[in-house]
Amino acid sequence: MRLVALNATGQVSGAERVLLRTLAAAVRRGWDVECLCPDGPLAAEVAATGARHRAVPELGLADGPRPAAAVRTVARWGRAARTLRRAAREADVVLVNSLLALPTVRLAAAARSAPAVWLAHDVVVAPSRLRLYRACRAGLARVVGVSEAVAVRLRDDVPGSGPEVTVVHNGVARRERAPRPAVSAERPPVVGLNGLLTSWKGQHVLLDALWMIDRPVRVELMGGQLPKDADYAASVRARLEGTRLGERATVLGHQSDPLGVMAGWTVAVSASTDPEACPLNVLEAMSIGVPVVASDHGGSPEVLDGAGVLVPPGDAPALAAALARLLDDADLCEQHAVMGLERVRRAHDADRQVDALLGQLDTVAGSVRQGGAP
Description:
Layout: E1 2-6, H1 14-28, E2 32-37, H2 41-49, E3 52-55, H3 66-87, E4 93-96, H4 102-108, E5 116-120, H5 127-136, E6 142-145, H6 148-156, E7 164-167, E8 190-194, H7 203-210, E9 218-222, H8 230-240, E10 249-253, H9 258-262, E11 267-270, H10 280-287, E12 292-295, H11 300-304, E13 309-311, H12 316-327, H13 330-347, H14 350-369
Helix pairs in contact: 1-2, 1-14, 3-4, 4-5, 7-12, 10-13
């Protein structure tokens, strides 16, 4: 079995972590695995899985004035398509890990024998993104969404025929429950948010809510940032530097042991203002027994399934009220912690996720080899 994967960026975030776990499992099964992605941190992590790396250009939209940026973007897609055609010439299946990689797959489709499967990590709501999917879906044999929230948009909001859309939920590794952090007058409870420092992750919403919580509490904002988000990251830090808010909140940045940091949290928050697909930060908090408050849209309600608290997206007063309720009720915190642990073990185990995804890739490849529909 020869697998070729394609990723639009060389950076590493949640979608890339799922990809890396999949590549490593395929290598362990004895598959011949190659990953096409831009040079960057992801390339080194691909090599660590045992897969090969082949460089392609960045496949995101180019910066600059629109006409010139569009020309540069299409040129990148074309160069990447030529590389993909060469890499996939002897492949059994191509795994596409990014919405913005779809044009490359479509351009390569006419001269590419291997079927392509898109692992969709986005709840596609923007009309421009839906149009992009519709224009490119003819190059796909199947779409695998990481939640029903992802799949329903692609099934119901894109008219006309297209590839089969299935679901394999994100998963996380099995872990022991973290000890409950001690809370005292010297060490107040900690509310944490784990996510890239980018505006749609909602760090500003949590900071707005912090003003409204009338009890001692600390906030920790954990996660790296991409170059394009420098202005937003600077605005978040500016709210904290030398201010009363900064006495209660800290930007931790990227951490090498995020679960170790999360183990010290009393409550974890996912305050995303755009819908998450199947948020790994929520699953990871649940997996170590940290209760969660999340925005009520996208895949978060599906992931929690009652094992956490949902609030309207972007609603700082509602977030503040939910946090105050949990911080004031240790029994309620414990109830959500136990329910979250059980939910992850039952429905979001990483090994089962990888087995299911590799099974879908094998099925698509096998159908094509036998001359049937994927």
